[in-house]
Amino acid sequence: MSETPDVLILGGGIAGASLGAELAADGAAVTVLEAEDQPGYHATGRSAAHFIECYGPPAVRAFNRATRPFLESPPADFAAHGFLKGRPLVWFAYETGRAALEALTAAESCLSPLPVEEAVRRCPILKPDGIVACSVEETAADIDVAGLHQSYLAKLKRLGGRVVVKARAQAVRREGGCWRVETPAGAYAAPILVNAAGAWAGEVGRMAGLPPIALNPLRRSAALLPAPAYEGFEAWPLMGDIGERFYFKPEAGKLLVSPADEVPVAPHDAYVDDMALAEGLHRFEEGTTVTVERVESSWAGLRTFANDRQPLVGFDEAEGGEGFFWYAGQGGYGIQTSVGMAWNAAAQLQGRPVPEPLAGLGLDRAALDPRRPMPTALGH
Ligand SMILES: Cc1cc2nc3c(=O)[nH]c(=O)nc-3n(C[C@H](O)[C@H](O)[C@H](O)COP(=O)(O)OP(=O)(O)OC[C@H]3O[C@@H](n4cnc5c(N)ncnc54)[C@H](O)[C@@H]3O)c2cc1C
After folding, report:
1. Which is deepest, 148, 174, 208, 378, by most CB within 10 Å?
2. Tens of pLDDT along 184-194?
């Protein structure tokens, strides 16, 4: 075993890449071990790529807010361009979703009520039938996910960090003050181990011999349909049913539709369940004027949540958890929170308090503690 970095990170998705880069910027020697032959193969490469500021539980919203300015205008040595392209989000509610949308709109300054006719004017395939309320987040955006992820990996490598692919951790144990990780690409050890293994984070915790923490990988599917023949189609908003029955938006000249499904599954290389997709496309057809004649491509990915749907960030205080840092449960927000989450976690790993602007946004690390009291089942 020749590797003795300060920190080993398991997982090279957006979580591992962004935290690794921030730690390297602080002078730490970092090695990222990625199971697949390319980082970004799992959730990070399968997202719908939106930035929605008013989406997610409280800590997630603080991370969204902290992340936005960086994505809009990153430092020149990180990227030549910003990663956001404006695309407003229009939420629409049927009777069952009315109270939820009204409460959300009242609570969030980034949302404003929108007349139903205006929502239909902005997206003419939306059928107004049954829609009782709409709201708009004008500052929502598409994220260049691949660009962001690659920029983090480049920063990590520029600062001396390593990314080892085809290096799935198969055994993890504490030995001589270090975490020792066996992989097909060799054995690695470091005093600190970051668990950024996405859907597999629960499995990694168990492999390390720690008491289990409930993490729920939930499958979500998406499909690309041919673009409807409307002038100005590319500028349509992201349109979302507040009841999370489906959402859709233009995507590279096609129409991306997701059934917004959340099916609990074991961690795996996710694939589309044809029935779930067909049901979701049926809901989309009922809510729009589109008849789906052809699906051009489809995919699925895993959004992984703790039972309270807030991320897990912090050292494990359970017996045997010394030096084991959880960085998991990013759920459906791991891209749009990545920058702020990495700033906070890098500071935490080095014993520093919550950095600005997160401290000013009220971020409470206790709410992210991996051993915090948790509901016994996954909440909504
Ligand atoms: C359909 C869909 C739509 C989404 N839309 C959005 C969106 O619009 N906006 C947003 O912000 N988020 C969105 N998300 C969520 C976002 O994609 C995730 O929160 C984010 O990608 C999680 O990043 P990660 O690095 O934790 O996980 P991953 O990208 O899954 O990375 C984890 C990595 O760990 C590796 N790994 C696993 N086990 C081991 C091991 N034993 N050893 C070494 N490596 C291991 C895996 O190979 C993987 O590469 C969406 C997700 C899906 C599925």
Report:
1. 148
2. 999 999 999 99
